[in-house]
Amino acid sequence: MQPVEINTGTWYLRQIRADSAIDDRPAITAAFNEAALKRYTPQFEIPDLAAAGEYVARRAAEWERDERYSWAIAEPVSGEMVGEVGLKDVDLHQAFANASCWTHPDWRGLGIMGVALRAVLRFGFGALDLHYIGYAHAASNTSSRRVAEKCGFTLDGRLRAAALVDGAREDVLVWSRLATDP
């Protein structure tokens, strides 16, 4: 599937890019080297623009293979990337995916992610005809909990000691939205 753009009314969701017109690599590098994001996403090592370029290329390839649909959340006037939202672990046959998201540290606390993720949920349930979209995060990540609650996810349970945060084991909260949920 080709990347789809979504206008949320407040924010513009577009393909993550690194080209002559729009270069998201500086925003990606800055975000993934900020302490809070690094704390919860230690699997991503993005120390420089070259690594950010690989990240952008990986996201494009995942979209093409229908494995993951990721959008840059962009400020609509400047096009500046303020975060990323997406559906990962996509299984179109089983009508299943998991939501993922992060916000650039300079743009946190503005309600951006709730707006963006709700738009992606509509895309998932509508255009992709998904039945289930999950969302999981470390229990100490209160920002992710607020996003889940604002987007109407149901807390399904807890995976005990399933995450490693700052070198210590921590529970993971598991949420879900169904296409049949109000």
Number of strands: 8
- Which parts are unreliable, with pLDDT below 50 for 5 consecutive residues or more? none
How many DSSP H or I helices?
5
What structural category characterises the helix and strand content?
alpha+beta
Described by the principal axes of the CA atoms, the overall outline is: globular
Tally of separate domains: 1
What share of the residues lie within helices?
A: 25-40%
Instruction: Tell me the distance between the termini.
Output: 28 Å
CATH homologous group name? Gcn5-related N-acetyltransferase (GNAT)
Order of strands across the biggest sheet? Answer: 1-2-3-4-5-6-8-7
Order of helices and strands: EEHHHEEEHEHEE
Q: What is the level 1 CATH name?
A: Alpha Beta
Q: What share of residues are in beta strands? A: 25-35%
According to CATH, the fold-level topology is Aminopeptidase
Q: Which whole number gives the mean pLDDT? A: 97
Main sheet properties: 8 strands, mixed
Assign the CATH architecture: 3-Layer(aba) Sandwich
Rg over CA atoms: 16 Å
Pick out its properties:
alpha+beta, 5 helices, eight-stranded mixed sheet, 182 residues
